[in-house]
Structure formats: C-alpha cells, structure tokens
Fold:
Amino acid sequence: MADAPDPANNLPTGYVPPAVWQWEPGNGGQFASINRPVSGATHDKVLPVGRHPLQLHSMGTPNGQKVTILLEELLAAGHHDAEYDAWLIRIGDGDQFGSGFVEANPNSKIPALIDKSADPEIRVFESGAILFYLAEKFGAFLPTDPAKRAATMSWLMWQMGAGPFVGGGFGHFYAYAPIKIQYAIDRYAMEVKRQLHVLDTQLGRHEFVAGDDYTIADMAIWPWYGGGLLGDGYKAQAFLAVEEYSNVRRWTDQLAARAAVQRGAMVNRTTGPLEGQLHERHDAGDFETRTADKLG
Structure:
C-alpha cells in the first residue's frame, strides 16, 4: 500500500531515515547488483595489453565517449602517436571491480587510461583528467592563449560538475529508479533544463562552447548534452522539450557530422544499432571489419 499523502504538500510520507544508515544489498534499481558502499576489487583480473602505447579501458557511455572522440580527433589531425587500444569494461558485469582495473583507477569508474610510452607508465582516471592529459601531451585542442585556455578549462570543469545531475540525478530517477518519484524527477528536470539553457545561451554567442575554437570542452560536453539529451538519452527528449534549445541543436549537429566524433562514439559501445558498436578497437581498420553486426 502506498504511503498516505501529507495534505500540507501532497507528498508521500512514511519513510524516516534511521540514526545510522545500513546497506541492504539488492535494494532495487537497475544497478543494484553492482552498487556497494565500499571501494576495492571484488575479484582478480589482470588488464589486457595491446600493441599501442595508449591503453584505454572503458565503455561507450558518455564519459567513455569523451576520451575516444578526442583520440580519434588526434589521429585525424595527424598525431600518429595517439594510436590506442580500447578494451571493453562491461560495467553491468562488474568488470570495473577487477584487481587490474582498480589498480588503474581506485574509484572503479570508467574510463581509465594507461600511457606505456612513459617510464614508469602513467595511469590517468576521471574523463576530464584524461582529456586534459592527452591535450597537453599532444599539444592539441587546448589553446595556449591564457584567456582561451581558461575558458576551455572552465567549461570542461562545468561539465564535470554538472554531469552527475544529468546522469545520476535526472537519468537515474526518470529512467532507472524502480519507482517514479515526482519530487526527484521535478528537482533534476529543473536543473537539467537550467543547464541546457546555460549551454544554449553560450552557443548563441559562440560557434563552439569555449569560443571560436573546437576544444576538449566540446568533446566533454557533446556526449552528454548533444549525443545524449538531444539524442536518445533516457528517451526524455519530449519530456524535457529539448527542441527549445536551437543553439545546442545547431552545435550538436555540427559535431555529429565530424567523422572523428562518429568513430569515437562507436568505440566500446554496447547499445544501439549493431553497426554502430565497436566493442574493442585496436586498429583504425576495426571500424570497417569488427563492428558488432560483422561479428554476429
């Protein structure tokens, strides 16, 4: 039986938080089987190693797509040393809790990058940190002019701070939570629409997010707000009335037309049309020969 509503605000009542919270495994929701309140490895598993210096362990979620888009853009720009192996981490199966992955990223979140061109090797985690690391390493997509660089980093950090409201907030309660909670959905829908308005206003003044240059800020923001909210993310386009944001739409389509963005969005992807899924990427030719539709 549903809790009786509180007549003062028409909200359900009944749950009173205990003095000390206790974890109850399997407490509902799509990701209940992999969520836990402690860190560390759950099983031993050594990470595979390919032939390229850059080893990426990821999945084609928006956070994973940020890095593969940058890597494909670097290769398209002629940075041949940006060749990479992309290994699939199936987060639904708990691959991120393998001992090798936890060693690369103690936070057990994708993506994680290992640069074996350095001695000792360099491990980088958090998608924003990986974008910054690679942009600095190759001297690309991060302006050197102080004002432009500051704008790029500001918008990169904007996405890193705002993203959890989109995914863990709105996306979770709208699409994944086992029950629909109006208060939670209203709270996060309001914030997501505010963010879209912030982005739409900025893109009404500039071609790209941080100004006139295409940067890592665009690559960080596009998978969440362009390919995500204005794409098929959470099936919430009508609910959020995303077509109101015409400047975001213009920018979304502009980036989506870039061949490197199209390739990057395919890497480590496990959802959508099979021809758009490249579960692992070890060579540029894999886009033609190893997509999921060709591997059955």
Summary: The mean pLDDT is 94. The two ends are 46 Å apart (CA to CA).
